[in-house]
Every structure is written in C-alpha cells, then in structure tokens.
Amino acid sequence: MMTLLVFDVLLFGLFSVLLGQFIGQSREAYAMWIKEFVYPDEVAKSTEDQRKLCISVESLSREICGLTDMIHVVGGLIIITFFVIFITIIWAYDTITLEFDRRVTIASMV
What we know:
By secondary structure, this protein is an all-alpha fold. Helices cover 91% and strands 0% of the residues. The protein has helices at 2-38, 47-109. Helix 1 runs antiparallel to helix 2 (47-109). The radius of gyration is 26 Å and the shape is rod-shaped. The two termini are 33 Å apart. The model has no long low-confidence stretch (mean pLDDT 83).
C-alpha cells in the first residue's frame, strides 16, 4: 500500500513538472503571438524573419502537443493508481475490521 502511495506521489511530481513546462511553452507562444500579430512593427518583415517565426512557431506547437500527450498519460496513471488504492482499501477494510473486533473482544474478556 505504501509503495502505491509513493508511486502516486512520484506521478504527481512528474505531472507538476510537465504542467510547468506546458505553461511555460504556452506563455512563450502567446508572447510571440502578441508581439507579431497584435502589436506588429511598422517595418515590413523580410522573408528570413518570417521563416524564423514559422520555424519557432512550429517547434513550439510540436513541444506543446508532446507535453499534452505526456500530461494525458501521467494523468491517466494517477487516476488508475487512485482507483487501485481505493479498491485495496475497500478489500482490506473487511479484514481490518474483523481483526480489530477480535482484538477488542479479547481485550474485553481480560
């Protein structure tokens, strides 16, 4: 049971790291969008500048999609681990209560 809880804590740590990366990449993409499309410079851009912009947007979108996939996988693992812990607690509850009742009965006889 403790191993499952430790595994779940490690999954939460990995989830938070991935979520932090996702938020950072999204902020960078949003800042690029604001800079280029909302408040564009008055000077006309060359094709080299546009090519660099397209390359950076493409790499950001690939990273964001990859992070999204990893977040879904880790989130699914967290949910499955919680489900296993919950089932284990329900399964062990009957055994724990019977043992507790037996010990209380023995203690009351003394």
